[in-house]
Design brief:
mainly alpha; two-stranded antiparallel sheet; 2 strands
């Protein structure tokens, strides 16, 4: 019986959070009312307050749930391409960009760019979400691709997270194209050693040309 009650409570909590998400996405967090939330789910206000003692508690629970869903999706993208660094970065970044495009909570968490008062108090937690995503990606990369230079890995992870957040804020190419460009940048950083040197030029020769595959061709 205790397990059944716990299951019922979990289902109720998810229904309340689903209804809260819909309300916040539609009208903004400022206009969320506990009485309306209880009515939308068909429970009493007493039942609602037993689960969430305040509006802020609802917002905090939404924050945690959406962040966890985002991190799970990122890891799934990485897992699907563990043997291909470029494809793994592209898949995880593409997932994040697409999710942020249709999930205003994720956008607010990762960029502090809430609109119309949307979870304005939660945007102060974006630094924590940013740090969590960075730590997760760094830990994953350390395990999956141990041959990458540690300094290059740290720089690549930081670039991946920051570039993704930047593309969320700024309107630009499609999520697919943005993910491809970010993956290309991240891979170049990850595979560098910091000891590369520019090709020497003889006097009278034209500057070398950087090819699309990253190689350098001399032009006589």
């Amino acid at each position: 019986m205790p397990r059944f009650r716990e299951t019922v409570r979990t289902l109720l909590r998810e229904r309340l959070l689903d209804a809260a998400y819909e309300a916040v996405a539609d009208r903004g967090f400022d206009k969320l009312r506990m009485a309306h939330l209880a009515s939308a789910v068909g429970v009493s206000r007493q039942t609602l307050y037993a689960e969430f003692p305040s509006k802020e508690a609802v917002g905090e629970a939404l924050f945690q749930r959406e962040l966890e869903r985002c991190l799970v999706g990122i890891q799934q993208g990485l897992d699907a391409h563990r043997d291909d660094l470029r494809a793994a970065v592209e898949a995880s970044v593409g997932f994040t960009l697409t999710l942020a495009g249709r999930n205003p909570l994720i956008k607010a968490m990762l960029t502090s760019a809430g609109e119309d008062g949307l979870l304005s108090y939660l945007t102060t937690r974006s630094a924590a979400a940013f740090g969590t995503a960075t730590a997760m990606a760094d830990a994953y990369a350390t395990e999956a691709w141990p041959a990458i230079d540690p300094v290059a890995r740290e720089l690549a992870v930081d670039a991946a997270v920051r570039l993704t957040a930047s593309h969320i804020v700024q309107a630009g190419p499609s999520p697919e194209e943005s993910a491809r460009r970010i993956a290309d940048t991240v891979v170049r950083i990850a595979l560098s050693t910091g000891r590369e040197r520019m090709p020497r030029q003889d006097s009278g020769t034209r500057p070398p040309v950087l090819l699309e595959d990253g190689s350098v061709a001399d032009v006589r």
